[in-house]
Amino acid sequence: MPDKATNTELQSTFEFEGVWEELLENKDFIEIFLSEVLEDYIIKQRWYGGKASKLKYIELSEYFRIQQHGEVYFGLLLEIDFFEAFFHHYFLPIAFVTDVNFAKSDRILPIKIQGQQGFIIDAINLEAFRKLVFERILGAAPFDRTKVQYHRSESFKDVVYESSRFMGLEQSNTSIIYNEKYVLKFFRRIFADKNPDYEMSRFLTEIKDFKNTPSYQGSLNIIDSEEVNVTIALMQKLVPNEGDAWDYMLKELKCVFENLETKHINIGNLPIADRFERMQINEVKPEIIDWIGLNLLLKIQQLAVRTAEMHVVLGSEFEDTAFTPNHFNGDYEVWLKNRLLYQFQNRLNIVENGMHKLEGMALDLAKEFLEKKTLIRKRITNFDWTALKGERIRVHGDYHLGQILVTNNDFYILDFEGEPESTIRDRKVKQPPLKDVAGLFRSFHYAIYATIFNNPDSFKRPQEELFEAAEILYSYFTSVFLGTYTDEIQNANLNIGYNQERIFILKYCLLEKAVYEIGYEFNSRPQWALIPLKGISNIINH
Predict the structure, then answer these.
(1) Over residues 509-525, mean pLDDT
(2) Which member of 43, 166, 311, 401 has the greatest number of CB atoms within 10 A?
């Protein structure tokens, strides 16, 4: 069977007698373009988020020109409808190229325009297109009222285009590095609203001058047919870095587990901390410092400072209602419980239908999860807003070690798009800041267990002993983080509630996050379901 590229070249070429600028007005072209040809192309793209569903058809919601000095490209907003009765919108910019040696793997449709043979391709592959977008943002007028709106920050000036390249393997978006100094992220999955990443980036760096996130440089938005402002692309300063905190943590944790052997540590004699206890490093027992190492605990402390600073900034606005802190109320409680109960029921079904995939401790924890479903449901419905005195603010929403860059002795926080499974409206709901803390704690838990799973031959202890060590390690990470984070928050007068309230909210958010994680693990790597199931077990038995 010939490969897809060969198929594309064998298809009969669509002939268009008009000029390129009028192509999108041709109904015959639209019909052919939106056929199986585009479907074949889209389902192979890394940014396509519908791989688990069955695509029904593709419609062109609307299109707009991305142009300068007579050079024209088209930005398409595609509606992809699924047999499961929902739809996604995606952004696809297109260009016409005639060079037969160019972009062979990214051709969408062979086409002849005014007798000239060529191909429709994703325009982001074309340097001329990338340069045009850069220059349009750089030359943006202060108050752009056109359909296609370019915007630049005060700091993005006095530069010229030098180079552009793809950033690398991303899942949901496409990022371009310009001049090795700036990053332009094209959002592929599009929502009928401003993207939270765009909103948060402008707020944190342009309004509040928060230093530990890439600074906002510019953007491309469109006003759609419903008069809604839709974010297409976000430009930020490139932060020189040593990789993300997930990879950093995995390297550090491998050494921590190797220390069990080299330092002849008896795991059974190590004291465990209360996971919700606040602890300063000078309160950590010497044998724990000896095992984990002071440097890693100082890094956890530093991360706690940066996280608290982010939340303090996000809780410091009193004019822009999108960012002003709110108290808990009945509407939030109803929204939260409905969301969680629906998600919990979905995960219960996944576990019940996937028990045959599990063995050992993962199977035991899954059985406990099912046996205690009534208790877990009660934990979810026990949320009572009238007992809570803290504030809700805009939060990161998908905060984990992979969203944090490690730089020279510091951390930078990125990607404020929010939880991938959530609607755009849900991502903008103000939440307790401890929701982000819970996300990071789940990420700590994952990194610790991933170290055990990824290095089966590196550590000599039985897996059960390593799991015991994992829980001890996790207890100190969370306690040290909470000690510093809470001090920073309280010193800045951000109200996250009294001590029992903080513990209640943190447990609630940890439960929510771990229940959410079950879905991915059962579908992708069932034995790793042990990690969220263990997280749930810790909370319901605490």
Answers:
(1) 94
(2) 311
